[in-house]
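User: I'm preparing a small set of examples for a lab meeting where we compare how different chains pack in three dimensions. I only have the primary sequence for this one, and I'd like the structure in token form so I can line it up with the others. Please keep the answer compact; I'll paste it straight into my notes.
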Amino acid sequence: MITRFHSMKLFNTELLADVFSSCIFTALLTGIVLFLMYKIFQYSKRKIHFPGPKGTWYNGNLTELLADNAHEYWLKWNREHGQIFE
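Assistant: Understood. Below is the structure token output for the 86-residue chain.
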């Protein structure tokens, strides 16, 4: 019976490696999600401040701004909302 206790490990290194890899994976996943949320926020903020007709958060309003009357869109937006530069 004494040999049985002596053969047991005092510290399970495999369990520590599993916990460490799980923590690293969770931190990476959290970082990626936060980074994507930041990029979407920055894109939405830029799209809101960009003059022109309304657009969706996914594709913005560039297709309508590339039309022939883009200057009229710009003037109309500038009259309604004022200067965009602070």
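A couple of notes for your slides: The mean pLDDT is 72. The CA atoms of residues 18 and 24 lie 10 Å apart.

User: Perfect, thanks.
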